[in-house]
C-alpha cells in the first residue's frame, strides 16, 4: 500500500470510528479520536472548541431531543479532509448532512457540519437553533 493510500485508509478509519461512537451515544469516544476537538456548525455559525465544550454540546443536543442516528451515504477524500454525506434518522426528524472532517496529516483537527436534520413535526427543539427545512426556511 502506498503512503497516500495508507493515509487515506487511516483517515477513513478515524472518521468511521467517530461516527460509530456518535451513533452509540459514546460522546467521549467520539471526541477522543480528534487530536484537537473543534466543531463548526455552518447553519448557525456556532464554533465549539475544546474537548469539554464539544462533549457539552453533544449533551445539550441529546437533552433537547430527539435522538438521531446517522448512516454514511457517501465518503470522499480530499487533500486535507474526508467529506461524508450522512443520512440522519430519528423520532420525528430526518435529513441529510454534509460533514467535512479536517485533517493535518493523520491528525483529525476539526469537523465542519453543513445541513442537518429536518423536523417532520415542525416543532422547535428547546435551546437549539432551528434547523433548515428542505425548502430552505427555518422552523
Automatic annotation (TrEMBL):
Domain of life where this protein originates: Bacteria
Pfam families: SnoaL_2 (PF12680)
InterPro entries: NTF2-like_dom_sf (IPR032710), SnoaL-like (IPR037401)
Signal peptide range in chain numbering: none
Residue ranges occupied by any SnoaL-like domain in the UniProt entry: 16-97
Annotated protein name in UniProt: SnoaL-like domain-containing protein
Species: Saccharothrix mutabilis subsp. mutabilis
Amino acid at each position: 500500500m502506498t503512503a497516500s493510500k495508507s493515509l487515506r485508509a487511516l483517515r477513513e478509519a478515524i472518521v468511521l470510528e467517530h461516527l460509530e461512537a456518535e451513533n452509540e451515544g459514546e460522546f467521549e469516544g467520539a471526541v477522543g479520536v480528534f487530536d484537537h476537538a473543534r466543531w463548526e456548525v455552518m447553519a448557525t455559525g456556532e464554533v465549539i472548541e475544546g474537548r469539554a465544550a464539544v462533549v457539552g454540546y453533544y449533551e445539550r443536543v441529546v437533552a433537547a431531543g430527539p435522538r438521531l442516528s446517522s448512516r454514511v451515504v457517501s465518503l470522499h477524500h480530499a487533500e486535507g479532509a474526508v467529506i461524508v454525506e450522512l443520512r440522519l434518522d430519528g423520532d420525528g426528524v430526518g435529513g441529510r448532512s454534509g460533514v467535512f472532517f479536517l485533517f493535518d496529516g493523520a491528525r483529525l483537527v476539526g469537523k465542519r457540519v453543513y445541513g442537518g436534520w429536518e423536523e417532520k413535526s415542525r416543532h422547535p427543539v428547546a435551546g437549539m437553533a432551528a434547523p433548515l427545512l428542505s425548502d430552505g426556511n427555518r422552523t
